[in-house]
Amino acid sequence: MTYSVLVVCTGNICRSPAAQHLLDRALDDSVAVSSAGTRGLPGWPVDERMAAHLRDDGVELGPFRSRPLTGEMMAGADLVLTVTAAHRASALALHPSAVRHTVTLGELSRLAAELPGGSVQGATDAERLAALVPAALALRPRFLGQDGDDDIRDPYGRPDDEYWRSYAWLRRQVGRLVTSLHGGAGAVGTPRPR
């Protein structure tokens, strides 16, 4: 069983490709991770300042080109992770029936961290994700009305420290999600500023 994860931001050159590469490095081969942008810039590479953070972290970028999000991509994904609530709304406008498996990365990682240890079972990351996502999302009612600060600002065109903050946030969310998925093991760690 292959579990498909699609990460969504705006241009698909900063936040979503960074999250895609971090998730791809952290998860086993049973999970296929890709990304797209609500206003994707077809054919563009990862923004160089974001790519530098990934390379400094030992992440191999390989061939990557930005692409615009489509309803077909949404339909083909088992899990759609967006970097903001606004991206979630835009993505769902393309494919409303994906509502049960479209969530911000920040919210999913925050809710997953609330799951009791040992509650996610499975032999592969695909099986564990298939168990973790509904279990984590079932916790949503406990946090209604609370500001989870689940969005990350777009660093594109901003000063270098904004790229650093964005990358560190993505790395933290991916690390928290992977830790929950693996029962406390396999954290991504904390990167150093450039």
From TrEMBL:
- The name this protein carries in UniProt is Protein-tyrosine-phosphatase
Q: Where is the signal peptide?
A: none
Q: Which InterPro entries match?
A: LMW_PTPase, Ptyr_pPase, Ptyr_pPase_sf, Tyr_phospatase_low_mol_wt
* Stretches assigned to the Phosphotyrosine protein phosphatase I domain: 3-180
Presence of the UniProt keyword Hydrolase in the record: yes
Annotated PANTHER family: LOW MOLECULAR WEIGHT PROTEIN TYROSINE PHOSPHATASE (PTHR11717), LOW MOLECULAR WEIGHT PROTEIN-TYROSINE-PHOSPHATASE ETP-RELATED (PTHR11717:SF31)
Which keywords has UniProt assigned to this entry? Hydrolase, Protein phosphatase
Q: Which family does it belong to?
A: Belongs to the low molecular weight phosphotyrosine protein phosphatase family.
